[in-house]
Amino acid sequence: MGSETAVQRRGRAAHLGPERRRPQVLDAALAIAADDGIAAVTMGAVADYMKVTRPVIYACFPDRVELIDALIQREESFLISGVLDVLPPRATNADETVFVEGFRTLLNKAAERPDAWRLIYGNPDPAVAGSFGRGRQLAVERCTALLRPTLLAWGIDDAERKLPALVELWVSAAESAVRTLFAHRDEWNPEDLGAFVGSAVYRAMRSA
C-alpha cells in the first residue's frame, strides 16, 4: 500500500509544473521544519518527504536558502495579517472590545496554523538567519500607521513620542500571547487569553 502511494505521488508530481508544485514544496518544508527544526530542511529531505526526485525540487527553487526564504516569507505574511487583526484599520477610536476581539482573532488564527509560529520563532541556522525578522519589521511599520490616528483620537499627550513604545508593546504582546497559548494549552484557550491580554493592552495604551 505504501509503495503504491509513493508511485502515485511521483506520477502526480511529474505532471505538475514548477509554479503549481511550489506550494507543495513549501508545505513539505514547513512540515519538516515543524517536526525536526529548520536545519533539517534540505533539498534532499524535501524530495524524500514528497516522494519525488531532487531535480523536481530544484526546478522549483535553485537552492536550500531560496526555498527556506520563500517559506519564511509565506508564513510571515500569514502571521503579519494575524497581528494586524488586533486593531482593524477602521477602528480609529478603538475601545476595549476592539482589542479583546482583535487578540481573540489573532490567537484563533495562530491555533489553526501552529507550525508557522514555530518556524518563525524557532532558532534558524546561520545559512538562513538573515531571512528572519523582516516580517516583524513590516508588522511594526503597519501597526504604527494604524495606531497613530487611534492615539490622536484618544487625546494621548505627546502621542508621537510615545507611539514607537506603544507599537512595540502591541506587537510584543501579540507575540507573547501566542507563545503563552502554545506553552500552556491546558490553562488557556484563544477566547480567554485573548480577553485577558486584549484588556491589559488596551488599559496600558489608554493610560499612556
Automatic annotation (TrEMBL):
<feature type="DNA-binding region" description="H-T-H motif">
    <location>
        <begin position="42"/>
        <end position="61"/>
    </location>
</feature>
<feature type="domain" description="HTH tetR-type">
    <location>
        <begin position="19"/>
        <end position="79"/>
    </location>
</feature>
<keyword id="KW-0238">DNA-binding</keyword>
<dbReference type="InterPro" id="IPR009057">
    <property type="entry name" value="Homeodomain-like_sf"/>
</dbReference>
<dbReference type="GO" id="GO:0003677">
    <property type="term" value="F:DNA binding"/>
</dbReference>
<feature type="region of interest" description="Disordered">
    <location>
        <begin position="1"/>
        <end position="20"/>
    </location>
</feature>
<dbReference type="Pfam" id="PF00440">
    <property type="entry name" value="TetR_N"/>
</dbReference>
<protein>
    <submittedName>
        <fullName>TetR family transcriptional regulator</fullName>
    </submittedName>
</protein>
<dbReference type="InterPro" id="IPR001647">
    <property type="entry name" value="HTH_TetR"/>
</dbReference>
